[in-house]
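Readers of this paper often ask what the protein records in our data store actually look like. Nothing more is needed to write down the fold, since each code stands for a local backbone conformation. Below, we set out a record of this kind in full and without editing:
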Amino acid sequence: MSPTERGVYMRYSFPGNQDAYVVVDANMRGSMVRFYPEEQKIVGFCKNANNSVPAGFANYFVIYFNQPFKSYGT
């Protein structure tokens, strides 16, 4: 993990001989997740913060993969 003032870069590795899964829990209220399989990318935001942040605060994310998706959905 490499944090910056307003974001973070994370890298995950999975064993090559096992199935790998990624679950994005964006909550239900005002959140969004979009899949771009042709770009091997997931983009979205989630508004599941508690009362410790300003009203309307959202966490935005972009997830890049180095392998094509075998399946995806919500």
